[in-house]
Design goal:
heterodimer; A: mainly alpha; two-stranded antiparallel ribbon; 21 helices; B: alpha/beta; D-Maltodextrin-Binding Protein, domain 2; 5-stranded mixed sheet; globular
Chain lengths: ~500, ~325
């Protein structure tokens, strides 16, 4: 109890409170601008934490992380361009809702379910950090491979009309990701002997190219043809979610929060896969009157709950085992180390007050997220008053800047341009773009875990089916891939009957 | 707090605009922010950012750490290599310059850079799971030699520094042919070790210390010639039975080869003060590196001798491309 009081005392100092609010705000801003992510924001605030006490330092870092994860949904919903890879699944229904004039409802729901998701994951972390950490340990390369393959199977749900086109898109994504230096053997792939191409295509740059550039081109094309949709005042109403909306999606929220926490706890997976799996789950289970993909609220609730639940999930291996699950938590880890807090089993024995501070800071930053966002929605939606072609100019600048900022490299700006034009061509060919993102996000993990498992077993393929979780995920993936085929087989029979 | 952040942001934007436009005069160097290219994430980034922050306090202008990761460091090296040698572009380097060059990732070697100062050394540690029952390195060697099972050892990808060190260590122990090398990235080797999917791992001590204290992992040895301050009770690999092992990873600062000596001297002085500061000493203990300052001459000699060592090692392992 002393530790808790101690933690409360250090967390409620003015410096800590300012740090948590400032961090959350910075995270929200970086998260909501396409191209600037919370990983960049964390790298920028890290030097600031060097001169702070440990609790304000943790507050600033975690605030930025949480704010950034939530902020990704803002541009996903308003502009159809995800601010972070974790928000890519939110675009599908969130942007459709904006087109139907329900932007504020989508934004409001996103921030509320994000908070709920984050707090549920925190609760899971508090009551069962040891248990979850031990479960996560059981996920070796073979199990993660199966899980990621299951994640890839959600392509089937994202393919809209043609499964074939979805598959083509997925494979394009996987192919783009093979460029660069192979992680396992250090072999150069598709680099044409240049050093520049060794860095490969950055996920974030590809994401901007796929979501933003076709949008920009489309806006200009419509403007010059005089087909631009005029802005109607009705598009910009501020309708916040009501209890009824949230109550209808309550159990979906709980399931997606648990899913996100679990996936976040497995190192090397993270936000995007959790969001896509949650979205696919919502698609299967939704009883909403509006089908998913057409602007259903459930399509916003599921991925947003899950990606924020990941924040609590990643804290579990970080604090209990000292293992960062993704680049963002790796920066949080640096910040902890500088302050002499070495995560791992001993942290819970030697610095229990720090652990409590982490819990309190997470709660505080969700309160800050709620306050800032719910107030901000009124301002955000005003963006929709701007004519599309003018907005496109602003987005072009931000995307160019964002693509450069990812790795401080002009190469990435060119990559964005080239991939963007390619993406526009694919869009015109009615190839869906979201499965490309899925291939990009999951490709490297899929390959790495597959090959590592193969090396571990000395070439024995039985390793892929040697544990219960692996078999379950492989079976689920097979089922999802088989479903459309079964449906096709059944159709003619229906006609006969 | 706000001012530091503002300074970083301001510096970053100034950099973007002003990079390479003004000609430096050595006597009033620096007149604009110095850009420090950081090649890797993880510990490299943490130490690099702290060093840059502390160096900024000893210079008229801030040192801005800029991450250019990718291609095993080659992307960042290429960037700095292509910049004018005026002291405004420096690289937070390591012996990745040698592993990268000999591995065929770059077409220039350490001679493309002028050393400024060596800052730190990181010493890999070799660890096993506690319930394997191996208390010393010799226990493990005897056990493996006496049975027909192979040892699964986790380290980073092929041709990486920890991979080379692992092979050199196992060769010295005489069990080089009874090993399966399992590549891991993102610091996952300790997890795999705890979960029992691998038998041993060679990684930075920081990843192991908490688990060793908790009694789930035994750290058998460190690969340097002297014991390290964060693990005073852990023997060196040489003491533990792998004779002749002395492999460490240095980190330091370097600039393009045509940078004037006066400018190098200014940066060296700032780096020296930073590395002696209390905050840096503190960080060395918690982040898990050894402070080991060396001036530009000594550093240059060490880079050259280390390059020969790495070249010979890679040649022996058939990983040398050039």
């Amino acid at each position: 109890m002393d530790f808790l009081l101690n933690a409360l005392a250090t967390s409620f100092t003015p410096v800590s409170l300012v740090a948590v609010v400032a961090g959350t705000f910075i995270g929200l801003v970086f998260g909501s601008i396409p191209g600037l992510t919370f990983t960049v924001a964390l790298a920028l605030v890290l030097p600031v934490t060097f001169s702070l006490e440990s609790t304000p330092a943790i507050a600033l870092l975690l605030g930025t992380y949480i704010g950034g994860m939530t902020g990704g949904s803002v541009s996903a919903i308003l502009l159809g361009i995800p601010g972070t890879p974790s928000a890519a699944a939110t675009v599908l229904d969130g942007y459709q809702m904006t087109r139907r004039g329900k932007a504020a409802l989508a934004l409001g729901t996103a921030v509320i379910v994000s908070t709920v998701g984050g707090l549920i994951s925190l609760l899971v972390m508090i009551v069962s950090v040891d248990f979850v950490a031990r479960m996560a340990l059981r996920f070796g390369p073979a199990e993660i491979f199966a899980l990621v393959l299951f994640g890839l199977s959600t392509i089937c749900g994202l393919s809209e009309k043609s499964l074939l086109r979805g598959m083509i898109a997925g494979v394009i994504g996987l192919m783009i990701m093979t460029m660069g230096l192979d992680e396992i053997d250090g072999v150069q792939r598709l680099t044409f002997g240049t050093i520049t191409l060794q860095q490969g295509v950055n996920l974030l740059v590809a994401m901007i190219a796929l979501f933003a550039v076709p949008h920009i081109i489309e806006a200009f094309v419509q403007y010059y043809r005089g087909e631009e949709q005029p802005v109607r005042a009705a598009d910009v109403n501020v309708e916040l979610p009501r209890w009824k909306d949230l109550r209808e999606n309550f159990w979906l929220m709980i399931r997606c929060a648990l899913m996100g926490t679990g996936i976040g706890a497995i190192p090397g997976t993270g936000g995007p896969i959790a969001a896509f799996l949650a979205y696919a789950h919502a698609r299967r289970s939704s009883k909403d009157s509006i089908p998913l993909g057409k602007g259903s609220l459930a399509g916003v609730v599921a991925p947003e709950t899950a990606n924020n639940a990941v924040t609590g999930g990643t804290m579990i291996p970080l604090l209990a085992l000292g293992i960062p699950g993704d680049p963002a938590t790796a920066i949080v880890l640096s910040g902890l180390l500088i302050h002499g807090l070495v995560p791992g089993p001993m942290l819970f024995l030697e610095h229990p007050d720090t652990i409590y501070s982490v819990y309190i800071v997470i709660i505080l930053s969700y309160i800050a997220v709620l306050a800032i966002q719910l107030f901000g929605i009124r301002l955000f939606v005003q963006l929709l008053r701007v004519p599309a072609h003018m907005l496109a100019v602003a987005i072009t600048v931000m995307c160019g800047f964002g693509a450069f900022a990812v790795r401080n490299s002009v190469f990435d700006v060119y990559t964005m341009g080239i991939l963007g034009v390619l993406a526009y061509a694919l869009m015109r060919a009615r190839i869906p773009l979201t499965p490309i993102i899925l291939g990009l996000v999951l490709g490297p993990t899929l390959e790495r875990e597959f090959r590592t498992a193969y090396i571990l077993s000395e070439g024995d393929p039985m390793i892929y089916v040697s544990s219960v979780p692996a078999v379950i995920f492989l079976a689920l993936a097979a089922l999802v891939f088989a479903m459309p085929a079964l449906k096709m087989l059944r159709k003619p029979k229906n006609r006969e009957a | 707090m706000k001012t530091t952040l503002f300074r970083c942001l301001a510096a970053a934007s100034v950099m973007a605009v002003a990079a390479g436009t003004s000609v430096a005069k050595a006597e009033d160097f620096p007149t604009k922010p110095v850009e420090m290219t950081v090649l890797f994430g993880g510990t490299a980034q943490t130490i690099g950012q702290l060093l840059a922050d502390l160096m900024s306090k000893n210079l008229a202008q801030p040192v801005v750490p800029v991450s250019r990761a990718g291609g095993g460091g080659s992307v960042g090296y290429q960037y700095v290599h292509g910049m004018p040698g005026d002291g405004y572009n420096i690289v937070w380097n390591s012996n990745s310059i040698s592993t990268g060059y000999h591995g065929g990732k770059m077409d220039f070697d350490y001679k493309a850079f002028k050393p400024i100062a060596k800052i730190s050394v990181e010493v890999p540690a070799f660890a096993v799971r506690a319930d394997a029952g191996w208390k010393t390195l010799q226990d493990m060697i005897d056990d493996i030699k006496g049975s027909d099972k192979k040892l699964r050892v986790g380290a980073s990808g092929k041709g990486s520094f920890t991979h080379l060190t692992t092979i050199a260590l196992l060769d010295a122990m005489g069990i080089g042919d009874k090993v399966i090398h399992v590549p891991y990235d993102q610091g996952k080797a300790p997890v795999e070790l705890l979960a029992g999917r691998i038998d041993a791992a060679l990684q930075w001590p920081g990843q192991f210390i908490s688990h060793a204290k908790a009694g789930t992992i035994n750290i058998l040895c460190v690969t340097s010639a002297k014991r390290v301050s964060s693990l005073p009770d852990t023997p060196t690999c040489d003491e533990a039975g792998a004779k002749g092992i002395n492999i460490t990873m240095w980190r330091g600062l370097a600039a393009p080869a045509d940078t004037p000596d006066e400018v190098i001297a200014v940066l060296e002085e700032a780096a020296k003060k930073a590395s002696e500061s209390e905050q840096f000493v503190e960080a060395s203990k918690t982040v898990g590196f050894e402070r080991d300052f060396a001036d530009h001459t000594a550093f240059g000699a060490e880079i050259a001798s280390d390059d020969e060592k790495i070249s010979a090692l890679m040649e022996k392992l058939g990983l040398k491309q050039q």
